[in-house]
Description:
By secondary structure, the chain is of the alpha+beta class. It has helices at 16-23, 38-41, 52-62, and strands spanning 4-11, 42-49, 67-75. 30% of the residues lie in helices and 32% in strands. The chain starts with a strand and ends with a strand. The model has no long low-confidence stretch (mean pLDDT 95).
Amino acid sequence: xxxxxxxxxxxxxxxxxxxxxxxxxxxxxxxxxxxxxxxxxxxxxxxxxxxxxxxxxxxxxxxxxxxxxxxxxxxxx
Length: 77
């Protein structure tokens, strides 16, 4: 079976609230006055896998302390 590239979104540990404030509420500064930006709150990891579920599992294994945002993860390209 052919594998595809998937982009899996990861929230940095302890940044869950900041992630959603930045991406969904369009806030640029958190409650502590810290300026928010995409690299601060999370990152994407591209992996080769047979499906999205497998890709998410691989990334979870590599980043066990971080939250994976499956609804923002998808097949790349």
